[in-house]
Design brief:
The structure holds two protein chains of two kinds.
Chain A lengths: L4 E3 L2 E4 L5 E6 L6 E7 L6 E7 L2 E5 L6 E5 L5 E5 L8 E8 L8 E2 L3 E5 L1
Parallel strand pairs in A: 2-11
Antiparallel strand pairs in A: 1-3, 3-8, 4-5, 4-9, 5-6, 7-8, 9-10, 9-11
Chain B lengths: L4 E3 L2 E5 L4 E6 L6 E7 L6 E6 L5 E4 L2 E5 L5 E6 L8 E8 L7 E3 L3 E6 L1
Parallel strand pairs in B: 2-11
Antiparallel strand pairs in B: 1-3, 3-8, 4-5, 4-9, 6-7, 7-8, 9-10, 9-11
Classes of the chains: A mainly beta, B mainly beta.
């Protein structure tokens, strides 16, 4: 049973560019959350998607946007990249019926130069 | 804004020793989760505690949720090199909140 799959695993972008990260949730999970983990820090909540809509958003600017598709997969888009956006981006999926069953992917390491 | 503070930030111990990691907040959480994260990987859920005063054991790991649901601890007995990793606590605020608030983590090294 595949867990959460994220792509790409690593990415290098130039300041000002745009990036799209992708996530396929664990089988049976219909809710996807995105987190940003800077070096030496704990993950910070960006937003959560359920039923193809953004259900809750953390303290991140509008440059961060997302989408959820009918098959529950999700994308995270970041526009106008800043050096400070360099981080590990984690996707977590969970079943709607349980707030506790979070499964994280291995993440996408984004470096902005 | 809810915050979770973890201590210690770093811990280096010899194989066979015991240790405790603490997770504290001034806010009440409906549940607390503990994760372990290895370099280059995502966090892996170890346990979820829901009830104030709850104690859960997972082999050599013991997790406790404070009576007021503002703090939690993780105790490891007879640590092994395989326990090495970053331990993260994360809280859920309550009904209608889907945001996990994470602490900064405790980096544990167990020396053989």
């Amino acid at each position: 049973d595949a867990g959460v799959t994220q792509s790409p695993t690593h990415l290098i972008k130039t300041r000002g560019q745009q990036v799209t990260l992708r996530c396929s949730p664990k089988s049976g999970h219909d809710t996807v959350s995105w987190y940003q983990q800077a070096l030496g820090q704990g993950p910070q909540f960006i937003f959560q998607y359920y039923e193809e809509e953004e259900r809750q958003r953390g303290n991140f600017p509008d440059r961060f946007s997302g989408h959820q598709f009918p098959n529950y997969s999700s994308e995270l888009n970041v526009n106008a990249l800043l050096l400070g956006d360099s981080a590990l981006y984690l996707c977590a999926s969970s079943p709607q019926r349980s707030a506790y069953g979070y499964t994280f992917g291995s993440g996408t390491r984004l470096t902005v130069v | 804004t809810q915050l979770l503070e973890q201590s210690p930030q770093f811990l280096s111990i010899q194989e066979g020793e015991n240790l405790t990691v603490y997770c504290n907040s001034s806010s009440v959480f409906s549940s607390l989760q503990w994760y372990r994260q290895e370099p280059g990987e995502g966090p892996v859920l170890l346990v979820t505690v829901v009830t104030g005063g709850e104690v859960k054991k997972l082999k050599r790991l013991t997790f406790q949720f404070g009576d007021a649901r503002k703090d939690s601890s993780l105790h490891i007995t007879a640590a092994q090199p395989g326990d090495t990793g970053l331990y993260l606590c994360a809280g859920l605020a309550g009904a209608g909140s889907y945001q996990l608030t994470f602490g900064k983590g405790t980096k544990l090294s167990v020396i053989p």
